[in-house]
Write a structure and sequence with these properties.
The complex is a heterodimer of chains A (396) and B (131). Chain A has 396 residues and is of the alpha/beta class. Helices cover 42% and strands 15% of the residues of chain A. Chain B is built from 2 helices and 8 strands. In chain B, strand 7 and strand 8 form a beta hairpin. Classes of the chains: A alpha/beta (396), B alpha/beta (131).
Chain lengths: 396, 131
């Protein structure tokens, strides 16, 4: 690793404790992955926010870093373990709430914008094509690399924070053009539409990639249109099931790639199999959740149309970013949705909130939500379109 | 002549202690109890043994990135290993050792180290020495 004068000073502790620890982390990662130098980053997304995952030791470390650590670039934050304002209504334990507040306060002290969302690109942290960034949150990493064409590795909580506090990341992996070329092609033959179907497609391709370690980056053809919400769902799913940080989609994503020699055809059968695995037979549904990744304005507006004048019969949550909900408040969508008995949970999501044991079965349009609903919370799962999720919520 | 290995510094510091060696990868999140320092991963060859105060020797880390914070908790409560030696250190263990100030060295031929041997570690220079 060749460090500049400033980077050396950071490593020697001349710019304070937190900066030194951060540069130690980045320098070690650079050495491990064979980076030759650091590259400046312009945007950071930090994960590892839920107190349920951090615990007291994680919080201790963050508090120590917050003593003298201040971010040097635009930095936003992943979801927390609860709605930071409305936690009581959502049944969060007061002691957990107090600890979660301490975590978010530590991040705020470091100058991080506490957006508490997995969709930073929807609320003002939007890099441009080719920019070097350091993002954590697997779905957002996949979106940034693929849909936007910015360059980031899959950072963990501490390494993303280290990038924010120094303004650098080691130059390796997805920051280098040569590592962004596709390894295998997929031709999708069925028509894929809506976030649930794009989620199933992400699982179908992700499962194949997961089974072959030499294939990391897919080149996908056969998708003629995909809106941001569909891509958001696809990114979350393929990152969850395939560990994918970057894909190319002909006609949709901006980056160039060589066309790989091997092609796999994705048929209706692949999608049916993915759906069957996401849906547990005879699942008893008592919880409906939309917004993994966080619901967009378009999705919220559509839900308002679907539930206008109706009443849900099951516990139903929309998880979203607080800034998104504030626009929904202004437009009257929130009132319509809340009048139907649906609850908003801002700043958090069903992957990180402590909701284990509270419900039996989860109905969602998110393929990622199914994975964590089962793995973390032992929920039975039903995966279906947004319209069918709302139908489920309205049914006894 | 004392036997010596030269590897690569991952996390700085110098220390010495008794080796606890595994030929298997180790996940700190879920694999090691953060309160007791016991290896709890079912079927792991170190299952039921304590990492506390040991020079922990294993090929590489695995599992969730939350594992970095488990190492930190172990170190803070005095239940952590005094040093870590790997064949190839990955992100979770590297970050965990740096934030916890546990000396760590990798690129060491760990098959030549056995449980119970006394080692001196000078991580700053990537050195592991038998005492």
């Amino acid at each position: 690793m060749k460090l500049t004068q400033l980077q050396k000073e950071m490593l020697e502790g001349k710019h304070g404790y937190a900066t030194q620890k951060s540069m130690e982390i980045l320098n070690a990662l650079g050495e491990i992955y064979g980076a030759k130098e650091m590259v400046p980053v312009t945007s950071v997304q930090v994960a590892g926010v839920s107190y349920a995952n951090l615990g007291e030791p994680g919080l201790d470390w963050l508090a120590q870093m917050a003593e003298d650590g201040r971010v040097r670039v635009l930095t936003t934050l992943n979801p927390a373990g609860m709605d930071m304002e409305n936690w009581k209504v959502l049944g969060i334990d007061p002691e957990f709430a107090r600890n979660q507040e301490r975590v978010v306060d530590a991040f705020a002290k470091m100058g991080i914008i506490t957006t508490c969302t997995c969709t930073p690109y929807l609320v003002g942290n939007l890099p441009h094509f080719g920019e070097h960034i350091a993002w954590a949150e697997s779905s957002a990493v996949c979106f940034a690399n693929s849909v936007i064409g910015a360059k980031t590795n899959r950072e963990g909580g501490p390494s993303a924070l280290a990038a924010a506090l120094t303004g650098y990341t080691p130059l390796y992996g997805y920051h280098l053009e040569k590592n962004r070329q596709a390894h295998v092609a997929f031709t999708v033959t069925p028509l894929v539409k809506g976030s649930a179907q794009f989620g199933a497609l992400g699982k179908a391709i992700g499962d194949i990639l997961e089974s072959k370690t030499e294939w990391a980056i897919p080149y996908i053809t056969g998708i003629s249109t995909a809106d941001t919400d569909e891509l958001k769902a696809f990114c979350a799913s393929i990152a969850t099931y395939g560990g994918t940080a970057l894909f190319h989609m002909a006609g949709i994503t901006p980056d160039k790639t060589k066309i790989p020699p091997e092609t796999i055809t994705i048929t209706e059968k692949h999608l049916t199999k993915a759906e069957e695995e996401l849906n547990e037979e005879g699942a008893v549904i008592d919880f409906v959740s939309i917004g993994c990744p966080h619901a967009s304005l378009r999705e919220i507006r559509y839900i308002a149309e679907l539930v206008d004048g109706k009443q849900v019969k099951k516990e139903t949550w929309i998880t979203t970013a607080r800034p998104t909900k504030q626009v929904a408040d202004q437009m009257g969508y929130t009132q319509t949705i809340e009048a139907a008995g649906i609850k908003f949970a801002c700043d958090t999501c069903c992957v990180v909130a402590p909701i284990k044991g509270r419900f039996t079965g989860l109905c969602t349009d998110s393929a990622k939500g199914c994975y964590y609903g089962r793995g973390r919370n032992n929920f039975q799962t039903k995966h279906c379109s947004l319209e069918e999720c709302i139908e489920e919520a309205l049914t006894e | 002549m004392t036997k010596k290995f030269k590897g690569r510094k991952i996390s700085p510091g110098t220390t010495s202690g008794e080796a606890l060696v595994s030929s298997q990868g180790l996940s700190f999140y879920g694999g090691v109890d953060p309160e007791t320092g016991m290896v709890v991963e079912k079927g792991h060859e170190l299952e039921g043994q304590s990492v506390t105060g040991k020079v922990l020797v294993f090929p590489s880390g695995k599992g969730s990135t939350v594992g970095s914070y488990v190492l930190y908790q172990l170190a803070k409560t005095g239940k952590g290993p005094v040093a870590i030696i790997n064949k190839e250190t990955e992100t979770i263990v590297a970050v965990g050792c740096i934030i916890s100030e546990i000396p760590a060295v990798d690129k060491i031929p760990i098959a030549q180290i056995h449980t119970g041997q006394k080692l001196r570690i000078d991580a700053n220079n990537g050195l592991v020495e038998f005492i």
